[in-house]
Task: structure prediction
Amino acid sequence: MIPWEQIDAADIPGSDRALRLRRRGGELSISIDGVGELMNSRLHGSEEALAEIGCAHLAGTENPAVLIGGLGMGFTLAAALRLLGSGAEVVVAELIPAVVGWNRGVVGELTGRPLDDPRVRVHAGDVATLLKKGAQSCDAILLDVDNGPAGLTRRGNDWLYSLAGLAGAFAALRPGGVLAVWSAGADRDFTGRLRKVGFDVEEVKVRARKSGKGAHHVIWRAQR
Result:
């Protein structure tokens, strides 16, 4: 078997852990110290489903505004761009600069280099900062931050999934807008918080692979 080769590593702000980008043949993996693999270039079906579920209502919309929290390997961004028209504006918030660099380099080679698309703007920072500013400025918000509401890596991410954070997302959406949230697993309390701030909520179970195989993940579709 071909051994894994580390390409790069990056510290996680607000944490004592690091992200590590590794390669094995044509396969790429991003892992975190003490936790294990977070994402793999072979397993991106649920990341694409996040975009498909979160942006389905925008079909035919001329100039939609979409906010993506968490760049990852860029599969969600690439899927969103395939669904959106030429007048779309997509802002991707990514806290770790190295992840943006990876997507402009070796990772981007696997996803068609979505960061080069003129519809895309990168916000180098916490998506929470944008949610706290926005007042009915987005048609869709796609969140794939940490491991979902349960979190793993950074306590600061907890705000996103709290009542305050969800209220911020609700306020940032235009009427009829959709918040879509990726998670490694179900969370009944999180569903309740979404409803409490005013969202109509649907919980969708998806698989890690586009083929319908792999681990079970959850995407919440919450509409204002």
Summary: The radius of gyration is 16 Å.
